[in-house]
Amino acid sequence: MTANIRVTIWNEYRHERKSPEVAKIYPEGIHGTLAKALSEKGYTVRTATLDEPEHGLTDEVLENTDVMLWWGHMAHGEVRDEIVEKVHKRVLDGMGLVVLHSGHFSKIFKKLLGTDCDLKWRETNDKERMWVVAPGHPITEGIGDYIEIEHEEMYGEPFGIPEPDTLVFVSWFTGGEVFRSGCCYTRGQGKIFYFRPGHETLPTYHHPEVQLVISNAVRWANPTAARKLIRGNTPALEK
Amino acid sequence: MTANIRVTIWNEYRHERKSPEVAKIYPEGIHGTLAKALSEKGYTVRTATLDEPEHGLTDEVLENTDVMLWWGHMAHGEVRDEIVEKVHKRVLDGMGLVVLHSGHFSKIFKKLLGTDCDLKWRETNDKERMWVVAPGHPITEGIGDYIEIEHEEMYGEPFGIPEPDTLVFVSWFTGGEVFRSGCCYTRGQGKIFYFRPGHETLPTYHHPEVQLVISNAVRWANPTAARKLIRGNTPALEK
Amino acid sequence: MTANIRVTIWNEYRHERKSPEVAKIYPEGIHGTLAKALSEKGYTVRTATLDEPEHGLTDEVLENTDVMLWWGHMAHGEVRDEIVEKVHKRVLDGMGLVVLHSGHFSKIFKKLLGTDCDLKWRETNDKERMWVVAPGHPITEGIGDYIEIEHEEMYGEPFGIPEPDTLVFVSWFTGGEVFRSGCCYTRGQGKIFYFRPGHETLPTYHHPEVQLVISNAVRWANPTAARKLIRGNTPALEK
Amino acid sequence: MTANIRVTIWNEYRHERKSPEVAKIYPEGIHGTLAKALSEKGYTVRTATLDEPEHGLTDEVLENTDVMLWWGHMAHGEVRDEIVEKVHKRVLDGMGLVVLHSGHFSKIFKKLLGTDCDLKWRETNDKERMWVVAPGHPITEGIGDYIEIEHEEMYGEPFGIPEPDTLVFVSWFTGGEVFRSGCCYTRGQGKIFYFRPGHETLPTYHHPEVQLVISNAVRWANPTAARKLIRGNTPALEK
């Protein structure tokens, strides 16, 4: 069932090439780690990165993607506006989008949500405990009461997002903060999931439960009923 | 995929036995017509009716139901409270529930929604046109811009329901009214869909697109991640 | 402006009369402490308690209440169903309702929300930090980034409520849990706010910011546009 | 109470100057008609139009606006992006925004909502009947069951918007369509109301109930609790 879902993992892929510390954790890039995890779960996976032509997001790739993952951080501004436009259009037409961690500040996420998507943060490796607040939601399948991540960057409220359609996870941090860590949206015909964890200097994407949530999110975001919409000037149905 | 979904169609089954006019349209009862339609689509279907012992809803039936359909009208008050309690608990534990037409006034729907669920109505066989307002939603799969029903009872606003999580259909009626005809809710771990059409004196449940929506709703409401919740007195995780 | 808002503070008023420990903190009852606070802010306040005739909630009181506060804990089961019915009807007709702390398990809250309203809890006086996640919301007026309560009972997720219309506060607890502590709903024409803090053995309702939130919530829940609804059998508007 | 609310009515103001037909209905411009109506209700009103320097939206004007109205149609593309950015920022910081009719395609509305905001339309002067689906909502104060507009342009579903926080009005049109005509959103600290009616060739903005809804919407959108947010790198609260 997952085999029919075509996933494109987009990664900025700069930290991994510039910082030996990050490269040690993600030698094939964050996208490489996630591609391996999702392939093992049976999805049809490809990757794309910032420094490829068209950021790896050609029309052909976009048309053949059911769900896209997005990780970016230091180079949001280098993502070209015309590519963002195309991704935006694909989401409205039904493509699922899973935005990860610092992707909260990506052009595509801000464009889809319409708000500043700003937040508090702290890089002192708090413990994070992500509580399930929407039990029964497909994104939580196989997850217990909470997911514990021994070391993570803190993100704190107020997170500048529209009220989620469904709030799935809320994080607790050692330092005293909380954060809405798993947020579902529908925009146009596309489903969007924001998932908080994943600082580049930490092995978060090797965490089995983090991988499971991402896998669940891909399945949840996979479009089922996308169609061509009838808009514009239309004649009356009744005389 | 649908074969694994166990559907129980609950019907009051009084109109069909009392009124020759209704019996002519639904000789096997409304539940019979819907059971045939859903069986043909591959679901594992059983039926239950008001005048059976325990209204046909024994513990065994409830435990082995993934999604329940509910049609009632003239005898809402005869549904026993202890059965309603059990169905309510099953929905909170994850069972899907599709409430049809006059089921808006059923005990189970009012108990789950918490409001009066009242509305306007008129039995003069308006034409109904149900517009899709949530394209891309799985419940609309295979449906065009709208569904047209040549003759139906009118239901009008203000409908006394909580704001739906997702509004899927809005109806237009010849007589000048509108109605929120397809409404999604999550309550506990269960998914609920209210679907307006289906007056007993009209052949609405023989309409292929009405059947398709009900089939889609069953698939949408099928629980995927229901679990036993941890509640009550709990020790601290941090010292 | 607040003077025109008629508030009825309902309190179970049993702990205060049975436990010297509680009586010391709330010598006039929890309702007495809240009545003083709201009167000082200019509201027109009365109180009602469980052991009064009709629990103090006569038709006359209900008709002349704009916003009701509800605190209950050990005697939820003693609240008579016909009184709950009346309060329920008044909320649907527009009366505001602010449900406090252990009121999450009251008959009226469960009836309005339709879910089990269950949660985790622990009485070891965690520190609670309630974060504002909806800045700009009128209930947060005058509140900073968060409210800190030195000692409180812990409430933990998953809280068995429908997704709030607006989530206003999320709590952090020393022991490692989070909780959706401030939740807005509309049911019928009435506005409902659930506000978590307020364990009877702790001086929470003397906390100025807790009082401020409750005052803000009363102003927010005050009905502005309630009307008599037109329902039932109606003639067509178009011929 | 309304006197303290500072309203800026922004109008494209092109149709009125180019078309004698439109000028006849709105000799002072659509903004002039609305300014008169809101002034009479006691608001502090100013206007701004596309062809003024900075489109009439200087920093000084923006800082001193509590609620902005927006009407545009033929010249959305001429609104400068840097002005849209400023209005966007002001909304996130708390300024209310009431978007009228063809403003659904304005840059500011699309930027705030993140979707294509597309729809069906027809200029054959259908009758429009806007039903209240959220009775008790302050924007419906003083309005009956519905508002009838003898002649209006039709707008039809599917309307390309995110699910509204609150759906207030749904329109019925003679030609057989429905439309979500009154939609509330919160984005950042700002409240947004989209209100459908108001085609430039028709006297809709002279309609007393249309004016009343707009006045109610201004009062509803007026910010009450906007504040400076704390974001960015923050130290831990707990050691």
Automatic annotation (TrEMBL), chains A, B, C, D:
It comes from Dictyobacter aurantiacus. Residues 6-221 form the ThuA-like domain. The lineage of its organism: Bacteria, Bacillati, Chloroflexota, Ktedonobacteria, Ktedonobacterales. This is Trehalose utilization protein ThuA. InterPro entries: Class_I_gatase-like (IPR029062), ThuA-like (IPR029010), Trehalose_catabolism_ThuA_prok (IPR009381).
